[in-house]
Design goal:
This protein is mainly alpha-helical and 188 residues long. The strands form two sheets. It has a two-stranded antiparallel sheet. Strands 3-4 form a two-stranded parallel sheet. The chain starts with a helix and ends in a 5-residue tail after the last helix.
Length: 188
Amino acid sequence: MLYLFLKRLFDILMSIFVLIFLSPILILISLLIFFQDRKSVIFKQKRFGLNGGKFTFYKFRSMPVLTPNVTSDMKSKIKITPFGKILRRTNMDELPQFFNILKGDMSVIGPRPAILSQKNLIFLRKTNGSINIKPGLTGWAQVNSYDDMTESSKAQYDGEYFKDMSIGLDLLIIFKTIIYFTKKPPTY
């Protein structure tokens, strides 16, 4: 399908562009994280991807090294490093996912990759078919208040994206993502 070819081409070109253009920032962030506690810079976690397969998901580490895996409903209980608060507030902790996109584990646009404990979300995605597309850095659910949604609402948006995938919808999601970041209030 031409759309999938163009989507993958966009993913590759966007990843290369971002990783090259932002390489000084990526290096600076890596150094700041490392010098904070002399530990690993990248947080790695198994996530569900295309067709329910598992892959290693990358983020800049924003929590202490031995922090257990948590779900989004446990956010109030997690400890975040001082620099990690800045990374999360600016969403710069997500930048290493461009390596996931370049590798082909993810796409720029698609459902967010579910963590292994989100069994219900995976079940709902299997039911609506959205498990059959690559997870994304941003997506239809994300531009519609992802963090404030129930898993069933997330899955509903993921299913809508799966049914209506097109260049036009992808461009709308990119536009809404840019708008979101320009209006995003600081969170502490």
